[in-house]
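Summary: Need help interpreting a holo structure output

Steps to reproduce:
1. Submit the protein chain below together with the SMILES for NAP.
2. Request a joint structure prediction with the ligand placed.
3. Inspect the structure token block that comes back.

Expected: a single structure record containing both the chain and the bound molecule.
Actual: see attached output.

Input attached:
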Amino acid sequence: MQNELKGRTAWVVGAGGTLGKQISADLAASGATVFVSSRDEKKLKDMAAGTALKPLPVDITERKSVDAAAAAIVAQTGRIDILVNTTSLSLFGDFLNLDDDVWLKVLQTKQIGYMRTTRAALPHMIKQEKGVVVNVTGKGGRAPRDVHLPGCSANAALNLLTKGLAMTYGKDGVRFVAVSPGVIDSPRLAAIRQSTNERNKLDPAGSDKAIAGSNYLGRLGSAQEVSDAVLFAVSDRAGFTTGTVIEVDGG
Ligand SMILES: NC(=O)c1ccc[n+]([C@@H]2O[C@H](COP(=O)([O-])OP(=O)(O)OC[C@H]3O[C@@H](n4cnc5c(N)ncnc54)[C@H](OP(=O)(O)O)[C@@H]3O)[C@@H](O)[C@H]2O)c1
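--- attached output ---
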């Protein structure tokens, strides 16, 4: 909704991705000042060209980088009202073939990374007595997928962290909401599809049918459908919504 978020400062981490791009554009269209973060600075600059988006490269696996980015936002706008975490690494495979390194990379990029950005932004929200953090998690957090167990574990942990933080900081005026997408039409899906085919010896048509048929609606979701849920979660229309998971997964 136009101007609904006017005067608010938003920080999208993972902004260069399929979902991050859509969410960033929709936050800006709603009137927020939007800082867009991921590692690839050129990609961020290309994405921000001709828009009001503010590129701010960050590596979510490095505390220093995350803390410096949060400080840079506050130096420019004096506040952080909205934090959206939506990073990921497309590393999938059979459990027995996944080395420690893969587990650590996935957990650093998602579970621990989301904690880092939250820890950096939260003191400002507490000071403002208002703020909202949206963690984009995933259906695998409640219905695990065989080739995606590190990411599914991170999603389950983040759903719980979202609730725990909501309980801890609700009285400070800060809300925490997880938005959990199911299969979304995106390049990431191609990587899951390939890994699913290899592990289960499916032909591509078989895996497409299995993936699309894995929800009540029998289709893939869109980035727009996920972004719509995020935009609701960060708005005052969701003022009494916290510590919960909004499932955007076709059932
Ligand atoms: N797409 C789906 O079907 C789907 C389904 C369920 C859940 N989800 C969840 O939704 C979220 C977004 O998914 P997506 O499809 O938009 O992912 P994506 O297209 O792969 O984008 C991921 C983003 O994370 C950034 N990133 C990766 N490592 C980073 C790091 N160390 N520091 C900072 N940024 C980093 C990437 O940019 P750089 O490489 O430039 O850093 C990229 O902008 C993820 O948490 C994913 O698990 C997605």
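--- end attachment ---

Reviewer comment: Residues 9-183+220-248 form a domain with the Rossmann fold fold (CATH 3.40.50.720). Residues 149 and 182 are 15 Å apart (CA to CA).
Status: needs-info
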